[in-house]
Design a protein that fits this description.
Length: 142
């Protein structure tokens, strides 16, 4: 679809999501970057979340943090996507355990029963400890 109509925004948003699920971080980053350029009215703030995930996985933590913050800024009332959780994971990777706990706790307050709640609660309990590396809840759910 992106080849047939390179200006079709929804195709780029969808491609960024599919690439995240397929763990194609370069593809997700490219698709998200293109979607953001096309989305002049900010109709799809979740694309910033896809961009944050791709950047996180490519070890661009400052870029990932910026993208996650933009997703939250553009759609602060959205409770379905994992923006707060993603930002928490980014902060944990940057060594900010307190900030990570704050954002992950906020995610759970907004979304009290995600399908991976036990894993997230377990991760929350060990942020900043070596055992946190063994627990890595997915940044985005399928």
């Amino acid at each position: 679809a992106t080849d047939a109509d390179p200006r079709m925004l929804v195709s780029w948003v969808t491609l960024s999501r599919v690439d995240v699920l397929a763990k194609d971080w370069q593809g997700a980053a490219r698709a998200a970057d293109t979607a953001i350029k096309l989305d002049l009215k900010h109709m799809y703030p979740e694309v910033y979340l896809h961009q944050a995930v791709a950047r996180f996985e490519m070890n661009d933590l400052p870029g990932a943090e910026s993208s996650a913050n933009e997703a939250l800024r553009l759609d602060p009332k959205e409770r379905k996507f994992r923006g707060e959780f993603v930002l928490g994971r980014i902060l944990a990777a940057k060594g900010d355990a307190a900030g990570a706990r704050t954002h992950i706790s906020k995610y759970l307050a907004l979304n009290p029963s995600p399908p991976d709640i036990d894993l997230i609660k377990g991760y929350l309990d060990v942020i900043g400890k070596p055992e946190a590396d063994a627990l890595k809840p997915d940044l985005e759910l399928p």
